[in-house]
Amino acid sequence: MSTISDDIVTSSNGLGYTSASATHPETMVKPPAAPSTGEDTIEIRLEFGGGLHLLFSSKPKHAIRLPRFVPGSSSAQPTNMRYLVKWMKENLLSEREEMFGDGDGVRPGILVLVNDADWELEGELEYELRDRDEIVFISTLHGG
Amino acid sequence: MTPNTEPSSSSSYGERPLELDEYVRYGRQMIMPGFGLPGQVELKNAKVAVVGAGGLGCPLLQYLAGAGVGTIAIFDHDTVSLSNLHRQILHTTDRVDMNKAESACLALRALNPRINLISHPVAITPSTALSLLSPYSILVDCTDRPLTRYLLSDAAVRLNIPVVSGAAISSAGQWAVYGGSTKEGKRRACYRCIWPSVLAGSGGNGMCEEQGVWGVVTGLVGVGMAGEVIKLIVGKEDPEPVLHLHHLCSNPLIRTIRMKPPSAKCIACGPNATITDDLDTFGYESFCAGGPQLNDGTGNAIGGAGDRLSAKDLDEILRPANGGEELDVVLIDTRPAVEFGICAVPGSTNIPLPDILKNPSSLPRASETIFICRKGNDSQLAVEALRRELSRAESSDDQKSRVRDVRGGLLAWNREVDQHFPIY
Per the record, which residues fall in region Disordered (chain A) (predicted)? Predict the structure, then answer.
């Protein structure tokens, strides 16, 4: 029975979770671990909703590691959203770049959330990422 | 005052703002601190327009009527179908084919005869939106396509009223209050500020008819929207505008995010807005078009005469008496596996369209390949992919393989060949 309901959920294009929380509770309710201080990389959690996971190998959740500072920056520029979007285009995007990117940013119609706030409230491309930040990309839904 | 002018609204001890039975009817919400008689009177005086009496509209309307929203206008030009009833819970089996606005009014009158229900069995268009919606102070968008969503948002900006807008597809939903101003006088972003363009090709563009939807997901979103409407009316709205995102299998079940303020670049509500009261001049059709559309079984997109089969032709080919086996025909059903599992033409093989498009060379070889799908759209894309593959792979002296598809798909199969074939 659980297999049946999981199949229904898997075909979802909404926030696009690949499995029910019941089958992988550890990924859903993991308590925050101690921040990985002292390392030269930071962990970023990415999530795609509204069908956008189709642009990223149909995987709705990704955990990635980025350098703490933008590589090659002369004055130790902390890694920001501008670097993340560029990194995603080069390393994570499975479809054509214009399906996701627009200049340094993302296409109009894609809403970017930084830890549960519209990224425009957080500095947009200039927002400096912190370890274990959660970045969500969603598009609007139309059904009703 | 004439004797029959609601004698119960006043007594020798003065005027009462509600009828006596309304004190009982609404008592359980009125006794909450911060709600009280003033909140109930606000509800009674409120005038709300709800567009769409479907999956979102039904649960929303049920709670607005139950709570005592005094005037509710319901706009819907569509009629009730049997496939609506798993989620559009105000309609009934008896009322299939009735207009949805009329059907919803029947249910709501039975629930609460004290409120004023106005049924509009018409579509809202760019030329009628402002005049139809101007009597109302809150607009609720329970529609199911981009065109009406942008039209309603633009109309609300022109009328300077808030829109409570929600959407649901598959197991996900989202809803928010857009436009208008908060109690503190802060302007909210309009729908266009947050979603400035339609993202063609994204999964969220789909309709419930094609992608499916959980009844409880439209239910939860509709009830969430009703909560926002009631909060607006009784002055309990969120001080900072927020957007709610729901997925049936996420934890937490609802993620609430802070929305940005209105966009200075917005063409509807920004300082250099180009959208005016003359909504008819904004090209909603072209703004919302998500690329070329293949539609129904006419087959005008791909293939000329003789390249497509009717369902009757397919029936002839498949009949053993006509040598279906010896003819070396393979019939491929391009629907998703879950739909193939619901019903399929005997003898057909299921290879979903994405697999066909990804790797047409892996399809089984036969002297004739026939594709079939639900409506006759995806099968045309499969035909195109296989023909391209064959013209690349086959040398000129090979015997040519024939590739065709069934016009009108399984709907035509049901209509023309087997009336007991399930249609879903």
Answer: 16-37
